[in-house]
Structure prediction request, 890 residues.
Amino acid sequence: MLARYASHLSFRLAVFALLAAALVWPILPDAARINEFRDVHHLFLYEKSAIDTIRHFHELPLWNPYYCGGFDAVGAPQTRFVSPTLLLGLWFGAERAEILTVFFFVIIGMEGTYRWLRLRTPDPAAAFLVAPIFALSGQFAVAYFRGWIQFYGFELAPWILYGITLAARRRVAGVAIASIAFAIMVGFAGLFATPLLAVAGVMEGLRSLFAQPRNERRRSLLMLVATASFMLTIAFVRLWPVAETLLSAPRIMAGAPGHLPRALLASLAAQLVLKDGNTDIDGSFFVGSAFLVIAGLGAQSKKGLGVLALVFICLWLAAGYSPIISGFALLRRVPMFSAVRYPERFLWPAMLFASELAAYGVNRLPLQAPSKRWRQAARVILTGALAWTVWTEIDAWKRIETGRTTGVVSDEFSTDFHQARGNRWRTVHFESIGLGSLGCYETHRLAQSRLLRGDLPQEEYLAPNDAAAGTVKRVAWSPNHITVHTSLTKPARVLVNQNWAPGWQSTVGQVQNHEGLLSVDVPEGEHDVTLGFRAWSTMGGAAVTLSALLGLGFLLIRGRHKGKLFAPAHRVGTALAILGPWVIAGAAYASSPDPKWPIPGQTNPNGTPALVPVAEEASITAPKIGATYDVPIVVEAASVVGPDPHNSLALELYLRRTGTVARSTTMFVHFERRKDQGPIPKEKEGFRNADHQIVGGSFFLSDMPEGRLVHDAFGTHLGKGASGIWDVWVAFGHVSGNKGRERLVSPGTSVESEKRVRIGTVVLP
Amino acid sequence: MNVAARILFVIVAVGTVSVVVTRAQSSTAPAVRHADAEERKRLAARVAQHEAEWNQKAAEDFPQDSWSQRDAFHNLESGFVNDVAKGAGVGMEDVFRGVDEDLHEHPSKNRNADVVPCKPRPVFD
Prediction:
C-alpha cells in the first residue's frame, strides 16, 4: 500500500513538507533574529546587502561596498544570491528567508533523493522511506548552526546525480536537470562543494555509462559530455567572476587532516551535541546506526557490491591523510582540488550512495523471509528503524539549533554611506546604518587597498598631490554608482574610499587603480563625474548562461519531437546548441575591455616581501649560514631578534629551494632553553615550536620558486618561557607519515644538533 | 490512488508550506532602544578606553602578523561592544555608530582606523 502512495508526487510532497516543517518548527518564532555565530556575520551580510541593494537602490547587487572596502559581489565565492532563493529574501527579508530557504531545500533534497533512488530501486516504498535520511543528515544541522546556509545547496546533489544518470540513459531531460541543479548550486555559493560533487558525478556517470547496452554507449557518452558542457556554461555567470577572483587571490590550504575509521563512524552514528558553543566531528554527519546497518545489509548482492565500492571510495577520500595511500592527498594534487578542505565532507556522497544500499536493503531483505508473516514483520521493523532514524535526525537538528546564540539587526536603513573602522566579527551591524566595515576576513586573500580609512571627513577626495586643484563633492551614491561634482583649476586625481576592481568605469576621465584604491583622473573645469561598476566577467558570463539556456531549450524541444539528438540528421543542430555558448565565452573573454587584476605581490604576514629580488640578494643583512638539507632546501641566512617588551621574537629566514620538494614538507622551528641552566619553574616552559608549512603565509615550501631566495618572516611569543639562554633551531620534515627529520647535509657556518641547525640564540629575562 | 486522495495530499502539502511561511512571517524581533548622540559618545568613550590594552594583547598573541593582530583586536572589541550594548539596553549598531562618530571627530593614528589588508592565516583543516 505504501508503495502505491509513495509513487505519487502529491503524497511525497505532503509527507516531505510535514517532515521539513517538523524540522524548522522550533526555529520559526526566531525567524526574525540573526544567528550570532562568527561566520554568519559576513555570510549573512553578503545576502542582506544584496537584498538591500535591490530594495533600496533598485540596482542589481554587482558591487558590495559594505565589507572590506568593497568587492565584486558576483565574483565572491561565498555570496549566494545568484540563485532563485534571492526571491525569498526580497519577499520576506534576509532574516526570515534563511529558515524558509532551509525548509524548501530540505523538501527538494528529499524529493531529489527519492527520484534518484527510484532509478535503480524497483520498490517506490523503499526509495520513499530512505529518501529523507540524506536530506536531514547531521551536516545540514551543523551548517545551519554555523550560518553556512550555502551548504544547503548540497541538497541538490541527488538531483545532479539523477540528471547525470538520465543523460547516460540518453534522455535529454537529464541534461537539463543536472545542469540547472548544478547552476543553482554554484549560484548558491556551492563553489567549495563543487569538487566533491565532481567526484560523485564522475562515479555516477561512469557506472551509468557502463550500465548501458554496449552499442548505445557512444551516444550515452556524448549525452554525458553535453551534460558536463551545459553544467559549466549555464553556471558561467557565476563561474567566470569567481574564477577571476580566486585566480587573483588563491586560497591557501595547509595541514594534512586525517580521520581514522572510528572517527568517521562516530561522525555518522554518534549523537550530535554542542561543545564549547560549537559542534564537534562526532555526529556531524549523523545518519544513525540503524541506517548504516540497513545499508550494510543492502550490499548483499552483485549490484549492491558495486555501490558499496563507491561508498568505500568516498570513505577512503573522507579519511584524508590517514590511510597509508591517501586518496585525498592524490586528489589535492589536481589543480581543481588543491583548495579542497575538510576531507570528512566526502561523507556526503558516501551517504548518498549508502542511501541506495539502504533502499536495496528495504526492498530485498523482506523477500528473504521464509513466510508472508515474516516478510510483513521484516517490513515493519525496517520501516520502524528508518522512521526512528528520521526522528533522531530531526531531534538532533532541534537540539543543536535551539543552542544558537541569536541577535537582532536594526531594522532601519541608511542610504548614506561611508567607510568605518568596522569589525568583521560583528559586521552585519554596520550595513543597516550606512557604514562599511574595513575590518575584514575571508577564506581567500581579498584585495584591499592600504589607503582605505575609516575616519575620513569625506569619502571622495582629491589625491594629496592634487589637493590644491579644487574641490570634490558627492552628489549621489548607490552601491554600483557614485556621482561627484568636481570643480578643478587643473586636471586632478579623485580618490574614492573604496577598493578598485576590474569593471569600474567613469563618465568623465579615466578610472585608475591608485595603489588598490578606486580613483579617476578628471580634467579641469566643472564636471559631474559618475563612476559605475559593471564587471565584464559578470556581463559576459550572463551572455554565456543565456545562450546555454537557449541551447538547452532548443535541445529539449528537439529531443521531444525528433528523438535522438546525435542522429546524423540532427548532429549539426545539437553541436551548435552545445558549442555555441563556448564560442560566445571565447569571444567575450577575448573582447573584454576590463583590465586584469595586477599580479599580487607575495608578502609575509608583517608586510615584507616574501621573495628577494635577484639584484638584492647580496645585500641582505641577516647572518649567512648556508646550511644544506636533503629536502633539498638551503637555509642561506637567518636572524632572530628579541625578545621585545611583549617577550616576542622576530625571525627572518632566507631559504632557497634547489630541487623538487614534496608538498607535505614542513619546516620545524624549535625554541629550546639550554639544559645547563637549572630547573624550569612549574608555570614556565623550556620549549616551544613555530613549525610551518606555508612560507610567509603565502606559499608551500614546495611552491617556492626554484633557485630564488625566499624571505620567510614570522614571530613567536615566549610569554611563558623560563628565563635564560634559548637556542633557535631549524630542521625540515613532513606533516604526515611521521617520517622524522630530513637529513642535514651540511650545517654551513652554524652548529648542528639532531639534524637541526641553530639559527640564533636569545636571552629571556 | 484516486483523485480525492491526491487533492487531499496537495492540500496537506500546500497547507504545511502556508503554515510554515506564516509562522516565519509572524516572527518579530524585539524592539531595541536607540541611544542619542550624547549616550553614543559615552559608550564610544568606554570602548576607546580599552583599545590600547587590546592592541597589546593582540601583539602578544600574533607577533609579526599584522592582519592577525588587527583581527584579534576586533575580536576583543566585539565581545566588549556586545557587553556594553547589552548593559545599556541598546543595539550594537549604536555602540559602533558611536565609535565611528568618535573616530571621525578625533582622527588618530593609534586607533586602527587604517587598513591592514586581509591576509588570513593559511586555512588548516
